[in-house]
């Protein structure tokens, strides 16, 4: 009768032999393959699943207002602005209680030049004695398409109102944003981005 193996003799055997139960090259290869799955395959699978679970960023769609006969204006929303009322004449967005309104292009003869629009805005602000608006100096801006414009910002202790007028050829479009003084600093960058995105298409000949 064969004597039993000394206690603990298996502890000196290679891991592959102890797991498979016999000393064989195929057993060792099997163990190495399993180890490779744990070391390489599972982390790779985890990365793949994680990547699949992350939702892709939603594409921001451009919005066009106006009519081909009178000229159109295309803007690209930015930040967390939510589109509200939209007509051929204007489009409105809201965000944290703030309101952003953009008017479709109009002939300069109807709106006035950007300088005239901003001058009228300053007059309206400063004439509201009860609110005590303080108007900034006009600031020159340029859209990404190269169209020039002017902006002015009115402030009170509690509120902010920004008005911009951008000219493209013989057309002018205005952008106005009103917000509480508390949220305006966080919203202004996205308003500036939307302003720069303004792209005009002239009226049909």
Sum this structure up briefly.
The protein has 205 residues and is α+β, with helices and mostly antiparallel strands.
Description:
- This protein has five helices and twelve strands.
- The protein has two domains: 9-53, no CATH class; 63-201, Mog1/PsbP, alpha/beta/alpha sandwich (Protein Transport Mog1p, Chain A).
- With 205 residues, the protein is an alpha+beta fold.
- Strands 3, 4, 5, 6, 7, 8, 9, 10 and 11 form a nine-stranded antiparallel beta sheet that branches. The chain has a three-stranded antiparallel beta sheet with strand order 1-2-12.
- 32% of the residues lie in helices and 32% in strands.
- The radius of gyration is 33 Å and the shape is globular.
- It has helices spanning 15-20, 25-53, 108-111, 114-127, 184-196; strands at 63-67, 71-75, 82-86, 90-95, 98-103, 106-107, 134-135, 139-142, 148-155, 159-168, 171-180, 199-201.
- The longest helix is centred in the N-terminal third of the chain and has 29 residues, at 25-53.
- The termini are far apart.
- Strand 8 and strand 9 form a beta hairpin.
- Mean pLDDT is 80; it is low at 1-59.
Largest sheet geometry = 9 strands, antiparallel
Specify Rg, calculated over alpha carbons: 33 Å
Please indicate the count of domains.
2
| CATH homologous superfamily assignment of the largest domain | Mog1/PsbP, alpha/beta/alpha sandwich
CATH topology of the largest domain: Protein Transport Mog1p, Chain A
Spatial separation of the terminal alpha carbons: 109 Å
Helix content: 25-40%
Multimeric organization: single chain
| Overall number of strands | 12
**Topology as H/E string?**
HHEEEEEEHHEEEEEHE
**Coarse morphology:** globular
The helix/strand class is alpha+beta
- What is the average per-residue confidence, as pLDDT, rounded to a whole number? 80
CATH architecture of the largest domain: 3-Layer(aba) Sandwich
Approximately how much beta-strand content do the residues carry? 25-35%
Which residue ranges are poorly predicted, with pLDDT under 50 across at least 5 consecutive positions?
1-59
**Helical element count?**
5
């Amino acid at each position: 009768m064969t004597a039993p193996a000394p206690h603990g003799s298996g502890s000196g055997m290679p891991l592959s032999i102890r797991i498979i139960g016999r000393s064989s090259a195929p057993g060792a290869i099997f163990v190495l393959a399993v180890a490779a799955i744990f070391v390489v395959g599972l982390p790779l699978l985890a990365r793949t699943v994680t990547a699949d679970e992350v939702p892709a960023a939603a594409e921001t769609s451009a919005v066009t207002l106006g009519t081909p006969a009178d000229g159109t204006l295309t803007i690209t929303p930015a930040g967390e602005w939510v589109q509200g009322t939209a007509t051929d004449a204007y489009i409105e967005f809201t965000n944290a209680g703030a309101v952003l309104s953009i008017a479709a292009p109009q002939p300069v003869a109807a709106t006035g030049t950007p300088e005239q629009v901003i001058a009228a805005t300053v007059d309206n602000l400063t004439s509201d004695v009860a609110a005590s608006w303080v108007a900034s100096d006009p600031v020159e801006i340029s859209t990404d398409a190269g169209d020039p414009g002017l902006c002015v910002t009115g402030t009170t202790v509690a509120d902010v109102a920004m008005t911009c007028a951008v000219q493209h050829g013989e057309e002018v479009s205005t952008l106005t944003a009103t917000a509480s003084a508390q949220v305006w600093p966080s919203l202004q960058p996205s308003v500036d981005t939307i302003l720069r995105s303004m792209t005009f298409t002239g009226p049909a000949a």
